[in-house]
Amino acid sequence: MKNVVYIILFIASSAMYGQQNMSIVNDPLYLKYEAAYVEHSRNVASTLKDLDVMEQEFYGKFNNIKDLEKFNKNKDKEKWLSRNIGKTSFKDAGEATSIYNNIVKLNNYKEDASKSLTDMINELTKNYSGVEISKVLRSRISK
Q1: DSSP-H helix ranges across the chain
Q2: Which of 24, 40, 87, 97 lies deepest, with the highest CB count within 10 Å?
Q3: How much is the pTM?
Q4: What is the per-residue pLDDT across 20-37, written as a single tens digit (0 to 9) for each?
Q5: What is the largest CA-CA distance in the chain?
């Protein structure tokens, strides 16, 4: 008798779980999130690679770690670069400033692109668990 009750509970909970997955797939906010996630993955992935390369190139041109720490602590990065270009292996302050500005621009783009996804996921987690969202997203994207 106990086994019958357990089987009925298992079937009922499985059916409820399946219905929850179906409801998330039909949720307009989830569908919007999924489309934004796919687009974000396509667009931002190459940007992240470019950003990594630029950061390695930029930070690798400091002569020592202490100068890099001083640069990072300074509020006016461009002024620091123009005054301390000798502490780096850049050709001139213009090159250093240009690379630094590109890094800042790509970081801002990355953050802006991620913000809308974060807002959507925060809204979705009010109705669905993060695990559920992740499972459905993975299963639908891998198809």
Answers
A1: 2-26, 28-60, 65-73, 77-83, 93-124, 130-141
A2: 24
A3: 0.66
A4: 456 899 999 999 999 988
A5: 83
